Fold this sequence. Notes:
It is globular, with a radius of gyration of 24 Å. Among the domains are: 32-172, Oligopeptidase f, N-terminal domain (Butyryl-CoA Dehydrogenase, subunit A, domain 3), CATH 1.20.140; 263-326 and 467-552 and 588-618, no CATH class. The mean pLDDT is 92. It has a three-stranded mixed beta sheet with strand order 3-5-4, sandwiched between helices. By secondary structure, it is mostly helical. It is built from 25 helices and five strands.
Amino acid sequence: xxxxxxxxxxxxxxxxxPAWDLSCEYESVTSQELKADLDRLSELLHEAETxxxxxxxxxxxxxxxxxxxxxxxxSTLLANVGxxxxxxxxxxxxxxxxxxxxxxxxxxYKRFGDVFEPLxxxxxxxxxxxxxxxxxxxxIAPSAFLVLRSRERAHENLSLAEESLVNGLSQDGIHAWGxxxxxxxxxxxCQVVVGNEEQEMGIAQANALMSSADDHQRRAAWLGINExxxxxxxxxxxxxxxxxxxxxxxxxxxxxxxxIHFLDAPTHMNRISRKTLDTLLDxxxxxxxxxQKAARLxxxxxxxxGFGPWDLRAPAPVLSAAEGGRDxxxxxxxxxxxxxxxxxxxxxxxxxxxxxxxxxxxxIDGTTGPRKSPGAYCTGFAKSKTPRVxxxxxxxxxxxxxxxxxxxxxxxxWVMRDLPDSQKSYGMSLxxxxxxxxxxxxxxxxxxxAGDKQEQLNIMWEEMSALxxxxxxxxxxxxxxxxxxxxxxxxPLRPQELKDMMTSxxxxxxxxxxxxxxxxxxxxxxxxxxxEISFYxxxxxxxxxxxxxxxxxxxAAGGDFFRQYVDLLRxxxxxxxxxxxxxxxxxxxxxxxxxxxxxxxxxxxxxxFERLLEALGV
Length: 618
């Protein structure tokens, strides 16, 4: 298949990525378009309040239907402005106008929650006949899955007054602690030795150096980052204790009818059962020796007995000329995009077109900067139904894979854009399907195109990095967070206790494959501080193995695969993970057989990597 190369306005061979263009949503924080959306949001909330008298008698269903439609309109506007503020602050965490807008939105979030809480309780508590009448409205019928799914947790609801109180307090409670961490992460600087010179830089910039090919540079960046976070271990531990303590107290308060476990909310949100989660973790434990072997092989390639935590994002070592190596050079952003388009296009030409469109519309931010927030993500604007991808692109092989991952998320939302809003939200476990699928496409294409042993090593290296990240690092994060919640039920934890707990989790999963643990990982990892979502870890493991299970069926499905793949993605907003696996893959996620088949395929990849190292005399 011949694809048109991506052409975007960048300097030839420029390594760093471009800035995204948000002006098609709002020209600025002070634009009339943004003000008009907030004014309209206020009007919708006021209109909802006039309908929000009670849900009793013959008018209950009609009131609920009217409020549902108002909520959908208001949610679109609130989400749109919220995404805009978040995007601005990701690129520049100190942008004053964006910070003020973010603060203004907190009042809207609270008001939104208060106004529509009666509707939520009506949907959860009404009898089955009333709900059937409510869902008979053609505009509301598509939300049946969400409605019935929500009713499964009706026993957790507090009284209307209590829910309103919780919603109000959370803005300056749990969410305030999460925002404090984000502001700290965006403004924190660290001292890193670069060459022979000590430089001050932002955390995101230092994180980028963790992908350096230079051993000493990676370690220097890791030391600088951990030293910076160590200086704030009291404030970060206070944030973590407050966030976890809030959730535990809410579980306690919601346990009046039956006991609520702290894992109930994240599994329900991810649309998987606790049995599926237990099965997944059991399989990860069984795969631990394989993953540790992969980590030891990577260390061996660097002439080490075990990696340090600063090596986990290291690129493949550069071979000597005699070994078939060549000088390491960064991959320009446009080259990475063209490669991803080619890989996506192997499934269907429309997928390649999508990658080109994302670049040409300037919907990707890959810039570097001292005030950028660390990490990468995909988000979207609710009004225009268009995705955006954010990352810090520095030209490393891992950056290409990260870009492929986030573009997978974007493609997932793109193929769902015509669905009703109530069918566009999906659990994070299923959200990782398209992203990890995209990674695998790109890695396999890179391996096919590998012209020398250095390129082969580079791609197999990325496969091993993904395997160890998902099968060792993610379970270690889960173990730490689970142990945190169990201990936090007794009392807040001191920074040293958090360090010890993180050290234990790393040692349990990595074993002797790692030369030393990363005791400050609890402070430096953003995922532990996301106030809206707990256990932002196991969905990655689920998505990794699940997507590889989907990928394995690509050959057998032949020409029907693309249609089947898109159908699966579109169902993620209206089915549980178990039902999707049963319908589209004929698989039972509570049975280890599905997961172990994927592990078997990974074992072959580890063996191939080992054979390559032996051929290189490593």
